[in-house]
Amino acid sequence: MAKMIRKNYLMAPGPTPVPFDVLLAGAQDTIHHRTPQYVSIQKEALEGAKKLFVTENNVMLLSSSGTGAMEAAVANLVEKGDKVIVVSAGKFGERWALLCKKFESNMIEIKLNWGEAVAPEQIKEVLDANPDVKAVFTTLSETSTGVVHPVKEIAEIVKDTKAVMVVDTISGLLAQPLKMDEWNIDVVVTGVQKGFMMPPGVALISVSKKAEEVIKNCKSPRYYFDLNAYIKKYPDSPYTPPVNLGYQLKKAVEMLNEEGIENIWERHALMADATRAGVKAMGLELFAKRPGNVLTSVKVPEGIDGAKLVKDLRDNWGVTFAGGQDHVKGKIIRIAHLGYMSQFDVIVGLSALEMAFKKAGYNVELGSAVKAAEEVFLKAGV
Ligand SMILES: *Cc1c(COP(=O)(O)O)cnc(C)c1O
Fold this sequence. Notes:
This protein has a seven-stranded mixed beta sheet with strand order 2-10-9-8-5-3-4, with helices on both faces. It has a three-stranded antiparallel beta sheet with strand order 11-14-13. A two-stranded parallel sheet has the order 1-12. It is α/β, with parallel strands linked by helices. The chain contains 13 helices and 14 strands. The protein folds into two domains: 20-259, 3-Layer(aba) Sandwich (Aspartate Aminotransferase, domain 2); 260-379, Aspartate Aminotransferase, domain 1. The chain is globular. The longest helix is centred in the C-terminal third of the chain and has 21 residues, at 261-281. Helix 1 (20-26) runs antiparallel to helix 9, helix 10 (261-281) runs antiparallel to helix 13 and helix 11 packs across helix 12. Bound molecules: pyridoxal-5'-phosphate. Pyridoxal-5'-phosphate binds next to helix 3.
């Protein structure tokens, strides 16, 4: 075919598409950060973010990707020899385990197969046997598998112990219901390049009063990520914040709050339903046992190279899905419906998937996935 302009569609679970208004908000004069003008912008962004965390606690801004906030959580809660519980059922639960190892904790790892979700009873059992556990590290949406863990039920168990409940919501926040205060979650960490419709570069972290006490008394070495400095400086930053990303965060938070958190959750649930109806109509099987609204992970049928298919979609058609990581590389495809996404993004994704599978020799009826998704949308009345 003749050379053709290529339009890109980001359908991976981070970074996600950024709305033009958010991009443009960043293209403004960089002002000095120690001015009332900048601090009021950051304040507005962070106060608005509280509504998205559904909390009265402050939300603090770190200049890092999401992993920086994960490291901050561990560095500020865990001392050498402290007993902690880590749920690891995929790449990102494993990251909590790696961090807790680095900080020389006495870790009890609840290790599950990729694709599985933890049962709250498993946490209860370990907590009952170990009343000296200081922190429980979990993941809302395990992005490597698409599984959502029952963090509300886990927090219900942790709340009556001395342990603090920590949740990695880097991909999960906004796509998946989470109410920090009502659910008694002590530490919520996220990154803005996923549900927040932002370019990468900012992590957000919110801590409860219970966690704040632990942070104050924690003796682990840390400097840049010492949360005491961020707590003290709020809504300002102890070090130079990413000023232009601050402008963008204010805009993104404004847009999100205009939609409203309940509507955002509902939109993500609808996109997930339509995507799943589509892939099932193609005869594909889901990988996650407890799939959430962040992404749909599908098993690649025998005889098809999933990694090659993802590369083909990205390089030839401009549609970026994520493949599998580590031992599921080539075996699953992860289709994100996260962030700045609406019905027609899902249609584009499913159409691309149909064509790529057909091209790879899989027996698919063109239009079947798209039709199934369209029916879900019409039934929902949108
Ligand atoms: C993306 C992601 C991370 C890693 O975040 P970075 O911003 O790449 O550091 C960690 N946990 C989960 C659940 C994620 O989705």
